[in-house]
Amino acid sequence: MNKLIRAKISALGTYVPPRLLTNADLERMVETSNDWIVDRTGIRERHIVDEGVATSDLAVEAAKLALAEREIDSSDLDAIIVATVTPDMFFPATACVVQHKLGAKKVWGFDLSAACSAFVYGLQAGAQFIATGAHSKVMVIGADVMSCIIDYTDRATCVIFGDGAGAVVLEPAEDDSLGMIDFMHEIDGGGGCSLYMPGGGSLHPASHETIDKKMHYVHQDGQAVFKYAVRKQAELCEKLLQRNGLKGSDIKAFIPHQANKRIITATADRLGLRPESVIINIDRFGNTTAATIPLAMETARQEGKLKKGDLVLLASVGAGFTTGVALLRWAY
Ligand code: UT7
User: Fold this and answer.
1) Ligand 1 atom closest to the CA of 156, numbered from 1
2) For the whole model, what pTM was predicted?
3) Ligand 1 atom nearest to CA at 229
4) Residue 101 φ then ψ, to 5°
5) Topology of domain 7-172, CATH
């Protein structure tokens, strides 16, 4: 077998819609309070789309910024992977819609459904096309318009989620010490009933009944997901660090999925991470599902915490259950 080529992230672009939904707005919509939301989740505000704006629109804005940063054209891309749980439509794939809107000429691509772990999984899938030498430029986009599947009368879910997108370009790392190092992913379908949207698929096709029963919204057993996330995220991170002979204190930037500030700090404590290495932006964006990790990469960059050569740990747990952890050295 030929030597595998290490993939690196060579550009990053992110986008959130301008409209803000603050905790004060939610206080007027459901029986909740700013104090409860901040205390239990860490969220202060989230961005949501205006009517008619779809996941592909956010994805394209993020993609354009990543292309501009790398100073390449969409036609230089070989593949586009769109990680999302809120595609524009069941089909065609949102990757096709994004390809068309970008005017990318010679790409193929697909959507990847793994909820909050989808960006990390997409990164790994994209890295394999680089590793084998099949491709030299793969775009991975995490994008979700969660507001389209949220019941804004259900206080248990509507305070949590927001909309957003982030895109990265993957390329071969000429310097073998940079780029994607290792990963450890796991799915556990036994947790499917803890976080799901039951309506609209082949099991419960859309009908008046599915709408009346609010089956087209996110349903979550928050405590069950919380407990699983705290346990599993730390467990896989620990194993991955151990396999690579690393300690938590070696990590320069811990970039976790932003579902709940308490999940992030619990993982950070268990791993012995340095507090300044833990990237948290849930206060400004809420849980944007597949977009949280690229959005948090951007936050890390803005805070001066993502420099060439820095050791980065990505971690996510989401519906499925899906868990993803990945280790990389930031490459530019
Ligand atoms: O990204 C996908 C993965 N998702 C996650 O990782 C989410 C994991 N879960 C969580 O983050 C937390 O479980 C939540 C933030 C969803 C909920 O926080 P919690 O501390 O687990 O609250 P709870 O569900 O145990 O509810 C505690 C109380 C309940 O009232 P009673 O029964 O004690 O009277 C709820 O009815 O808080 C109540 N409550 C609220 N009160 C004010 C639930 N939602 C709200 C609200 N405002 N928005």
Assistant:
1) 44
2) 0.98
3) 6
4) -65, -30
5) Peroxisomal Thiolase; Chain A, domain 1 (3.40.47)
